[in-house]
Amino acid sequence: MSVAFLFPGQGSQQPDMLHELPDHPVITQTLEEASTILDKDIFTFDTDSALSSTTAVQIALFVAGVSTARALKAEGAMPDMVAGHSVGAFAAAVVAGALDFRDALSLVKLRGELMENAFPQGYGMAAVIGLDERRLASLIGQVGEPVFIANLNAPDQITIAGSIPGIEAALAMASAAGAHRAEILRVSVPSHCPLLQHVSYQLARALDEVHFREPVVPYGGNRRARALRDPEAIREDLAMSVAHPVRWHEVTTLFFELGARLFLEMPPGHVLTDLVAAAFPAARSISVTKSGLDSAVIITRREKGRTR
């Protein structure tokens, strides 16, 4: 039975998310390593006030994901494939062996700064549940302000990005069209849409200066939802996905088709776990935040043992 490690993106952040990581020497070592690279105490990035910054959020999510995955691997709980939602993709690339932690952390910091500075106010993202992509795209096309499809998390769970007035108009139309839920998210930038094309180009230039290796396990690409093993394809995905929708449901569907029957979500939260549980009842999905590290290790070993 194959195991997929999943890494959450922006919107999953919680105050004290780094402070509440499992007590494990590998996690402690990774947190110290991050502080050294950043030349700043990593625990200053997960306070309630710090998490108002896109940059701090992305750094905290990245470090939480990599440190937990490293601890799992140190205990013998190994992934067969990895994928990260949005900034979580950088953690996935590190755990897959395609990118060094130091380089990835610097890139995540730059990514957050570029995104934060691109639209410091007046823009954001929202979630719409209960409408499919075609119907929602039709409604967005009627809005006069810039609004775009951003994340395809499930067939009827989609996020949109753009100007706040445009988003508010789109949400009102979605609710009138029968959406079960339509609300603005805790994200202050219009991620994964053409408004961030210039950010994507700047990030691509920085990525060109970094060494990539062939991953030891497949990496699920955000932009085209393919299992990537080519280092250059992973480099491109990390750069270009900033300005393109995250095709998350297609990524997890691909992994399920490739044999994944245990999906393990790194901290914080359980957003990705819930999506998998709803989409693939035949698979098992576990949030390390909920289960704890020790249980996640035991379950992973047991599930992988069934293939032998």
From TrEMBL:
Q: Which GO terms describe its biological process?
A: fatty acid biosynthetic process
Domain Malonyl-CoA:ACP transacylase (MAT) intervals: 6-304
Q: Write the Enzyme Commission number(s) for this entry.
A: 2.3.1.39
Q: What PANTHER family does the annotation carry?
A: MALONYL-COA-ACYL CARRIER PROTEIN TRANSACYLASE, MITOCHONDRIAL
Entry annotation: catalytic residues? 86, 192
**Catalytic class of the enzyme:** transferase
**Per the record, what are the reactions this protein catalyses?**
holo-[ACP] + malonyl-CoA = malonyl-[ACP] + CoA
Provide the Gene Ontology terms for cellular component: cytosol
Q: Which domain of life is it from?
A: Bacteria
List the SMART domains hit by this protein, alphabetically.
PKS_AT
What are the protein's UniProt keywords? Acyltransferase, Transferase
Q: Name one GO molecular function term.
A: [acyl-carrier-protein] S-malonyltransferase activity
Q: What is this protein called?
A: Malonyl CoA-acyl carrier protein transacylase
Gene3D superfamilies, per the entry: Malonyl-CoA ACP transacylase, ACP-binding (3.30.70.250), Malonyl-Coenzyme A Acyl Carrier Protein, domain 2 (3.40.366.10)
Q: From which source organism is this entry?
A: Polycladomyces abyssicola
One matching Pfam family: Acyl_transf_1
The entry's family comment says:
Belongs to the fabD family.
